[in-house]
Amino acid sequence: MKTARIRLVSAFAFLTASAMLAGAACQKDIDPPVIDGDLAMRYAQGNFDLGPRAFRTEGAKRSAEWIAAQAEQIPGFERAGGRVRIPASARGECNVEIAFPGKSDDFIVVGAHHDTKVLFSVPDFAGANDGASGVGALLAMAAAVADYAQKHPLPCGVRFVFFDGEEALYEYTETDGLVGSRAYVNMLEADSASRCLRAMILLDMIGDKDLRIDLAGNSTPALADIVMAEANAADHADKFSRGAAAILDDHCPFLQAGIPAVDLIDFSFGPENRYWHTGADTMDKISAESIKTAADVALRTVWRLAATGFQDLKK
User: What does the pLDDT look like over 129-175, one tens digit per residue?
Assistant: First the structure.
């Protein structure tokens, strides 16, 4: 990717300023919560242990019910105003939404998929990284937000959405793949809630022990800028980069609806991505530290957006 060349001292000054700005934005109210990486890993293990969770199967249904049950058991969940639901299905998808109210009707969606790919060569494929790691991240984020919300009002509403049907059964088309995210966006538009949705942050394959997150090239540029600034401010700049390639993922239906969206994805799982969609995608390949890194940066981004009144998204 071509970039303008600038002097080293200018680059350093820019990065320093970005880090200061990001830190200041997060502390404008109160610092955002941070997740418990070990808890995230336990959630990921629990989801993985359910076995295959392919779209339109009993496995996907069990996964959705399990996620909802974990949310309801979060300490202080109800006191924090939390609610969990499995929205009515239009095409057999089992999405799960965990929602917390904020100071206003504005809200941000943080998403991940909980279904697994159908692999005929690996019939028991349970996807530790793709996608139990995202499930673990979102449940641990929900626990951190519930704890925070009992002490401080949230700067905006936050909805953690676990999508079903992200994986294509055959190949990605208008009707195969991204089924859950499409249905969720349609649901928001039907009840006019999309007017209050300010941004969408997607986490996908974020458990890799050798974490290298690329922000998908078809992410909203202004939102990707904020994620990079927050990664830098949290001392995780070495784990994040701007990707050039567009990725077909659950952020796409949001983009198509005019909602700023960013995809945090590590698409280099194992040497030359050899672990992806294979029997090698097992729990020993992911780590609590990696999940925590991605989730903490996502929460920092939520707080930064809310603290600045979402003005940065208008650039």
Answer: 999 999 999 999 999 999 999 999 999 999 999 999 999 999 999 99
Residue 85 lies in a domain: yes
As a whole number of angstroms, the distance between CA 86 and CA 77 comes to: 17
Distance CA 248, CA 88 (A): 25
Q: Residue 234's domain spans which residues?
A: 31-309
Q: Which alpha helices (DSSP H) does the chain contain, by range?
A: 8-26, 37-48, 58-72, 133-149, 179-190, 221-233, 252-256, 288-307
- Residue 208 domain-assigned (yes or no): yes
Residue 1 in any domain: the answer is: no
Beta-carbon count within 10 A of 228 CB: 22
For the chain, count helices (H), then strands (E): 8, 8
How many Cα atoms occupy the beta-carbon half-sphere of 101 within 13 Å? Answer: 8
Q: Supply the pTM of this predicted model.
A: 0.91
In a domain, 224, yes or no: yes
Count the domains in the chain.
Answer: 1
CATH of the domain at 196: 3.40.630.10
CB neighbours of residue 255 within 10 Å: 18
pLDDT in tens, 92-111: 999 999 999 999 999 999 99
